[in-house]
Write a structure and sequence with these properties.
Strand order of the largest sheet: 2-1-3-7-6-4-5
Catalytic activity: guanosine(10) in tRNA + S-adenosyl-L-methionine = N(2)-methylguanosine(10) in tRNA + S-adenosyl-L-homocysteine + H(+)
Strand content: 15-25%
GO molecular function, one term: methyltransferase activity
CATH topology of the largest domain: Rossmann fold
Distance between the termini: 56 Å
Family: Belongs to the class I-like SAM-binding methyltransferase superfamily. TRM11 methyltransferase family.
Order of helices and strands: EHEHEHHEHEEEHHEHEHHEEEEHEEEHH
Largest sheet: 7 strands, mixed
Number of domains: 2
CATH superfamily of the largest domain: Vaccinia Virus protein VP39
Number of helices: 13
Shape: elongated
InterPro entries: DNA_methylase_N6_adenine_CS, RlmKL-like_Mtase, SAM-dependent_MTases_sf, TRMT11, TRMT11_N
Number of strands: 16
Structural class: alpha/beta
CATH class of the largest domain: Alpha Beta
CATH architecture of the largest domain: 3-Layer(aba) Sandwich
Subcellular location: Cytoplasm
Amino acid sequence: MALSCTLNRYLLLMAQEHLEFRLPEIKSLLSLFGGQFASSQETYGKSPFWILSIPSEDIARNLMKRTVCAKSIFELWGHGQSPEELYSSLKNYPVEKMVPFLHSDSTYKIKIHTFNKTLTQEEKIKRIDALEFLPFEGKVNLKKPQHVFSVLEDYGLDPNCIPENPHNIYFGRWIADGQRELIESYSVKKRHFIGNTSMDAGLSFIMANHGKVKENDIVFDPFVGTGGLLIACAHFGAYVYGTDIDYNTVHGLGKATRKNQKWRGPDENIRANLRQYGLEKYYLDVLVSDASKPSWRKGTYFDAIITDPPYGIRESTRRTGSQKEIPKGIEKWEKCPESHVPVSLSYHLSDMFLDLLNFAAETLVLGGRLVYWLPVYTPEYTEEMVPWHPCLELISNCEQKLSSHTSRRLITMEKVKKFENRDQYSHLLSDHFLPYQGHNSFREKYFSGVTKRIAKEEKSTQE
């Protein structure tokens, strides 16, 4: 059956990658622009077609100025599971809502979009001709029309079993396209300064959107690396700041990551990366600092903390300390003498993420968001392994597979409570704490899986 028309109903055409990240991104952006996610669909799964109710066209346009997960948005005029249902739905759409776009002084064109099937030009023309009952009074202009309308047909997700007829057919007025071109224009391949773990451009923008980063925000990355996440946040008008324990990375020194290049050049640094995209005015600073040590006065400084902590795979997990065993508990926060030269010690993943959550709870403004990656060994993963904090509410938890046995999860949390000193150790009382410590062996489990895979490949080659 066709869905009955309601006011402010829109159709989103989604990109078919990073499927788990799409829904949290759209929800976050709607919230950012004063809307609320509302849909009659029970599930989204892998489908590229989403029907949403959005308060206004302005919010729909603002959404598309930010999203990298959606391709286009349309004002939905009709929907059916067959041509007949579509035409019936269109005939029930209020004429007064059509007239402003169909009057005699306007120009228009109609496009046909199919998912999982290719139509001939003759078939496309046949579908356009079937819409003659609509009260179009303007002139067709295929090059620069004032209004664009689309018929969108969904032939399912299986390319090996394409049905004769579409599962769903939609008709709508095109409103705006998303920001998919940012993925190419900000590609890491074109960037001045990169490292072994520079974040993919598309994921960087998704993280900024999950964090609801907006103009004039102050965004912080405590594991800044080569600054890929700062670039995405600065693109959306936020002022960016970061720290990292690696002196050479912060200052753009040492061996180069690019092939056939031995040493980094003078223009290979984080500031140069922002300058490359005309974003240098948003660059506050980047400092050499240890994320495990408190270097900030108490207060709320940041609207968002967006970061990709090291997992111990391509970048080591490190903190500063002394050769002696560092006492646990409150003593570890005591200052070292000025003459002390710290050395690099291992930094357990569980400690790193607990420090990160405490830091976010202390320094984020209320309503501010923490977005970070959590590596997991898939066979042992449970939701209880996600770090917990009384000041932070879990907003979304999305998986990106790294291998058959490992993945990383993009965790988004929002500060909902003012930080108090007793909150710093509240995780010790949580049921999540013990299973969470399993992350400390992630590196060993990762490489054990790699070793097994290599051995299996060598065995099959010998056979």
